[in-house]
Amino acid sequence: MRMKLTSLALLCALFAGAAPLAQAERLKDLASIAGVRQNQLSGYGIVVGLDGTGDQTSQTPFTVQSIQAMLAQKGVNLPPGTQLQLKNVAAVMVTTALPAFAQPGQAIDITVSSIGNAKSLRGGTLLMTPLHGADGQVYAMAQGNVLVGGVGAQSGGAQVQVNHLSVGKISSGATVERAVASNLGADNQIRLELNQTDFSTAARVVEAINDQFGAGIATALDGRVIRVRTPSSSDQRVAFIGQLESIDINRAKDSAKVVMNARTGSVVMNQAVMLDNCAISHGNLTVTVGAESNVSQPAPGSRGQTVVTQSNSVDVKKDPGRVLMIKGGASLGEVVKAMNAIGTTPQDLLAILQALKAAGSLRAELEII
């Protein structure tokens, strides 16, 4: 495991040290349109027809109450004091996401999850269940046969089931009953919302849109929201948005960031991470990052100029003392590569990166997960 984690950190370091290739991205991959979103729906329902794998009614009284209420609605009145012994029924929660612009009659997929102690939902049928939105209104009705996938293996007296049997899906199991009102294109404008706040990227998006559709079409409100003027008619607006989403944007470089997993020892960084001069001692390992100037003197009488350059090569020295020398300006990828070359453990690497950040030598945001 330690070798795999070390190899992963080294691989990420090699990619981080490589020069990134400039590549344009589509605007639809960088931003979303305000108001064009999914809406979460949920509902409480009952699955029937199970093969003895339902809720144990002695421990799930809500299942019995649900059955009694359903039978009462169907005109079946149970005698007072009746104790129902149900083995083929399970109480479930039904969840789904209502797509943007979904219209009544459209079918959507749903997920059915047991909330009791049912052993399995396989072979069950979900009874008609209303699905509510955050406002309490019913937006869809769900019903259908629950599909629970999985692989079973049996050897002698042992049996292994590879799946979560208390969760199933119903393809096209809900029908939309109410559409969500949309104000797309209100006042002949839309708002683009970048996935990440970045003033440089927002400025490039505005420039690209105005270059293609004309000056004044796009205006940046802040580092995340961009206002775009659209045609007044709906068909022209749809065509305009389609062209808008296909514009190629040269996204600005992300800020330098290092992400560390303290449990596994993995380290992930981007290409913008660099180091300043520093020296760190950790256990029997010494890490030194220093500047080295290379001076080139012209020959006498050649009227040349003296040239001073900085060397960013990595020099690794093993025992004694496990001394690691790294030239100033080296990337963090070179540091990780060099430390792995002398057998540094992932835990040592995490401690060293934390010390680099605390000393101000690591010019990057450090996130520990």
Automatic annotation (TrEMBL):
Subcellular location field: Bacterial flagellum basal body
Biological role stated in the UniProt entry: Assembles around the rod to form the L-ring and probably protects the motor/basal body from shearing forces during rotation.
Sample GO molecular function, one term: structural molecule activity
Protein name (record): Flagellar P-ring protein
Superkingdom of this protein's organism: Bacteria
GO biological process: bacterial-type flagellum-dependent cell motility
The protein's assembly and partners: The basal body constitutes a major portion of the flagellar organelle and consists of four rings (L,P,S, and M) mounted on a central rod.
NCBIfam families (UniProt xref): PRK05303.1
HAMAP family documented for this protein: FlgI
Family: Belongs to the FlgI family.
Source species of the chain: Massilia yuzhufengensis
Segment forming the signal sequence: 1-24
Keyword terms of this UniProt record: Bacterial flagellum, Cell projection, Cilium, Flagellum, Signal
Gene transcribed to yield this protein: flgI
GO cellular component: bacterial-type flagellum basal body, distal rod, P ring; outer membrane-bounded periplasmic space
